[in-house]
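Quick question, first post here. What does this chain look like in 3D?
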Amino acid sequence: MVNFFFREKIKMKFNEIPYARPDLDGLIENIKVLVSNFKQAKTPQVQIDLMKQIREARNEVETNESIVNIRHSINTKDEFYDGENKFFDENSPRYSAAINEYYSAVVESPFKKELSKEFGEHFINLARVKEESFDQSTVPLLKEENKLSSEYNVLIAQLEIIVDDKKYSMGNISPLLSSPDRSIRKKAAEALYGALESKQSEFDQIFDNLVQIRHKMALEMGYENYVELGYKKLNRTDYTSQDVSEYRKAIYEYVVPVVKKLKNRQKKRLGLDLMKYYDAGFKFKSGNPTPKGTPEEIVKNGEIMYKELSKETNEFFQFMLQHELMDLISKEGKMAGGYAAILGKYKYPFIFSNFNGTSHDVDVLTHEAGHTFQFFRSLSQPIPEYYVPTYEAAEIHSMSMEFFAYPWMNSFFKEDEQKYKFSHLSGSISFLPYGAAIDEFQHFVYENPNISIEERNKGWLEIEKKYDLSADKDNNSYLESGRFWQKQGHLFKVPFYYIDYALAQVCAFQFWEKSEQDFDSAWKDYLHLCDLGGSMPFTQLVEQAKLKSPFVKENLKTVIQKIDYFLEGIEDSKM
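> Answer (accepted):
Ran it through. Tokens below.
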């Protein structure tokens, strides 16, 4: 049972939350004192009580950092929050060092058995892997890593894409890229990649510096390269890079052939002899499915959907609306993409996105709402480590919510409902090879950290070809240079994250299948998964949700075959 009583006393809207730079020195010193007391504790109960005090101090730091991150994302040109973001980039490694002392104390505690009984064995394993992924000597490198990641964010956010003398950003160019008019699609794509090309040397240098910094960090900590360290930084305790490698092989074997068929169907639908790179985003000759109505009407439909879906989702979405915990509209200076965030001190989730007039706008109200719904359910977990699971488990919540929302798609898309569902499901399966390619590229990069920028980009072209990703590049110099990956921010900000989407997608497909057969039973399993938060590792959470592990090749094969069969039965040529 999740207790929501603590939220009733909080009335502030997000923009009313006060922010002042925290006394980070004082908070770090306080944490160090608490950790020292933890080490000297004579009973397990004293350690448990001290953990609660450490949690409160952490919430103070991490909530303020989250506020800064969100407000900086909303307007990267805001000088105040740009300065505060730089403050945290510079100082968060010192905070991480203090928290690492806490994890070391947990690992060395004589009361691990009692702590494990109170919080679960997963907490001890997390403490161990967190300790193994941090070293005080790497603090200067972490500061530089933060700085470079922020530089990338700002470059992407402020990228100017000019089409017919009108300025676009990465956040709102999508409607032109999916225009029924092929000449408009081509013009927009050329402008997009031309804008990226104008900054390619900066992207190259930022990424190269990040690779060298991360490799140096790994060597200083005794690792062969950054791969194992990167996995530990993602808190992966129950599988290895070898398991992921086998998963990529399974995607290559079972998914790539299905996606090839889907591409041929798309080419046939569009009546094209050859698919160019600027055709990839255009799915139907009659036009892509688009949500009907204004952004305000889309949100209103979302409110109705979540009211009807379940009492739990209704309570959640009303909370988000009442406290204005969503910033959805694309605007100048706003960071690209979308994400979900947590303000632990206030028990607030938050949704950040860029509405752009495409089906993406509805996906935000399902995908990011899936994340924030899970946060809403599990922010009452006893320790911050359990607020959110590891990324691949967290993406199950978001991707599965996209499918649980299917019965309400008519309210968003009207006559385009079936077109949307076909596009969404076929797009979801088509994503898997891309997710595998991004992950394989990252392994290639960090296993060969000293190769040149040119060799790195050539490596991407080979991986791209292996997974059959690219359409005809039509002599586009940026794409032919092997830099398509540069717009994928995860590579710059969170190494090895991206395969998590591919792992979660296969789990979400299972929820889709189950919901088609017995919606209430599937929802019950999903709700249980959300309530567990991060209290277990990925494979155990999958089991708890009554899903089959994507790491088992036969499970992946079975799931893909069912979707392939379902999609084969749809007459998409008539859409």
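Residues 69 and 85 are 7 Å apart (CA to CA).
Strands lie at 161-163, 166-168, 326-329, 339-343, 348-355.
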